[in-house]
Write a structure and sequence with these properties.
- With 230 residues, this protein is of the alpha/beta class.
- The chain has a single domain, classed as Uracil-DNA glycosylase-like domain (Uracil-DNA Glycosylase, subunit E), CATH 3.40.470.10.
- It has nine helices and ten strands.
- The strands form three sheets. It has a six-stranded mixed β-sheet with strand order 1-3-2-6-10-7, sandwiched between helices.
- A hairpin with a 2-residue loop joins β8 and β9.
- The longest helix has 19 residues.
- The chain is globular and about 40 Å long.
Amino acid sequence: MTVPRATGTRPAGDTAAADGYDARPYLPERGGLAAHRRAAADCRGCPLYEGTTGTVFGAGDASARLMLVGEQPGDQEDRRGEPFVGPAGSLLRRALDDAGLDIDAAYVTNAVKHFKFVRPSGGGKRRIHKQPTLRELSACRPWLAAELRLVDPELVVALGATAGRALWGSGFRVGERRGLLVPLPTLDDGALHGQGLATIHPSAVLRAEDREALYQGLVSDLRTAARALG
């Protein structure tokens, strides 16, 4: 495969590119979301592509006012090649509906485009989600930066800590920022328009003992997003 020439410059503090974890050489020099989706299918910017079905790029309205950013695809997303089509996606759709937001009018993506997993220690075919490292997150960030630039949403909702770190850096903490409307940062040398809002990832609701309380908190944060969009 002929690798396209890298575009852009290295972000300050980006150690991933320095050790070979870097998706930028795979980004197309021009084109819209469709061109980036095609190019992402061949991304080898970090080792996460090994053992997966393929890249799971973002999907939805290319001119959406709202962008939803999760952590990474899960098992079902990897198999189907679409973001948020598993149990967490079903819960997210319900929460958006309860908050008065239409997921069909949004653009949905993940900070990391490949499914990171481990196998059970006792063997078996089940694939268990594993959180991506900061190196993997930094390596994949050029794809997210491109999506943000091309869609140019008015509001970006970061679902969980990994999505928040992809946008606001490694010091991001959901508990400190959730539910607050804040300016979007400069990402990979490109100033972003609009606002950002962080909340919990819907998978956190599924793992919780008190699911209803966490679910209502998620809906409350999404209602703040709905009000911001008018």
